[in-house]
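Lecture notes, unit on protein representations.

Consider one protein chain, 238 amino acids long.
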Amino acid sequence: RNLGNGSFAAAQIAGAADSKICGIVIADYDNDGDLDFYTNGATTGRALFRNDDLAGNRNWAQFTLEGVQSNRSAIGALLRLKTAAGWQIREVSAHNSFQGQNDLRQHFGLNDASKIDSLEVRWPSGTVQVFNDLMPNLFYKLVENENIGVIVGTTEPSNQVNLTIQPNPVSREFDIKTDEKIEAVQVFDSTGKILSTALTLFETGARVRLLGNPPAGTYFVQTRFANGLSATRQIVRF
């Protein structure tokens, strides 16, 4: 486990395959924001290890890249991400293990960082793009030489979070209805830019007012709960 101070500690082994392993691939196969892995053997040793609780309530972000001038899978692209804790680097690569290929989506563990200060993408074509002030706990789509976008969808199991937004479509103000105690709410557009809001918290639920004059369109509401869970919902402003 990366301790974040330039050193590592041995992590507890959750389980082990019962025969010789020749390769391992890593992916967030269940789209819950943490990384799972699959082991591969020549004849046996094939097993899927699903990570359901090792990441705790730590934040994360994932990025899917699509090349235009570069190759479509963006193999060779370099991503540099900065939070208050420092920099992280990922490279899109192919054939990562014996008979195995990691998920091409690039995953960043963000621990308790509440935002991504900067994301720099260096495409194989030589193009460099920089995006600032992005939200955590989202799946992003990056197309070369275009703006960044959010892949719409919720990652929390439906039986864990009960949340509705009323009214929707909205004008200036809306209520979040939920059974859980809310800790924070942020509203952002399709590029991940955070909007200014006024928030009133209730024992369960909240009222959100959009400040300024954001244009009509689609926005996303990310709600963080006191129990560590989060939920993202889509709203339309008219």
